[in-house]
Design brief:
This protein has eight helices and five strands. The protein has 212 residues and is mainly alpha-helical. The chain has a domain of 145 residues: Ribosomal Protein L13p, Chain: A (Alpha-Beta Complex). Helix 1 crosses helix 3.
Length: 212
């Protein structure tokens, strides 16, 4: 990845702690990182257990003046942001600068809806968690502890997906029209696998090694 280039990561299907650890390292190295669809991030362990943990965290407050902290975020994006912050020396200038290089969002707002989004294979739930293990969605947890925008985010995501389908159909027609649709089924399948694993089609695998 070129210096100064923003790395956009789709948080859906990633494990919270593993993704946060990799993102924390990258922002410390000077890379700008944007994580979208934070409501789709997974947490290992069943939902009830994770909810009890968060409710216990909500009880941690300053006894004499709760408005002084600690602050308990409800939005999935802010919960993820706080997780990353806990892995950074955020009280130093270096840590503060690293934290400023991180942006987090619920859903996929513009302009990131038109950007190529990557995945982190080392943090994917399907790679790291046994199929029989239980897991929870960060979006559901946030909703049950006070996040008010689950329905709004879901509605906006549906609209975005519909627009993306229309754009994909137009792009496919143009590809066929310009004689670029001659690729075999095996070629497209290989390109799809590369996209799922490395989050990109261009470049070699070594450019994405930091994601693994």
């Amino acid at each position: 990845m070129a210096d100064g280039q923003v790395l956009v990561i789709d948080g859906r299907g990633h494990l919270l702690g593993r993704l946060a650890a990799i993102v924390a390292k990258q922002v410390l190295l000077g890379r700008k990182v944007v994580v979208v669809r934070c409501e789709g991030i997974n947490i290992s362990g069943n939902f009830y257990r994770n909810k009890l943990k968060y409710l216990a965290f909500l009880r941690k407050r300053m006894n004499t003046n709760p408005s002084r902290g600690p602050y308990h975020f409800r939005a999935p994006s802010r919960i993820f942001w706080r997780t990353v912050r806990g892995m950074l020396p955020h009280k130093t200038k270096r840590g503060q600068a690293a934290l400023e290089r991180l942006k987090v969002f619920d859903g996929i707002p513009p302009p990131y809806d038109k950007r190529k989004r990557m995945v982190v294979p080392a943090a994917l739930k399907v790679v790291r968690l046994k199929p029989t293990r239980k897991f929870a969605y960060l979006g559901r947890l946030a909703h049950e502890v006070g996040w008010k925008y689950q329905a709004v985010t879901a509605t906006l995501e549906e609209k975005r997906k519909e627009k993306a389908k229309i754009h994909y159909r137009k792009k496919k027609k143009l590809t066929v029209r310009h004689g670029l649709g001659g690729a075999t089924g095996d070629t497209w399948q290989m390109m799809f696998v590369l996209t799922m694993v490395f989050g990109c089609l261009q470049g070699t695998a070594d450019k994405a090694t930091w994601l693994s």
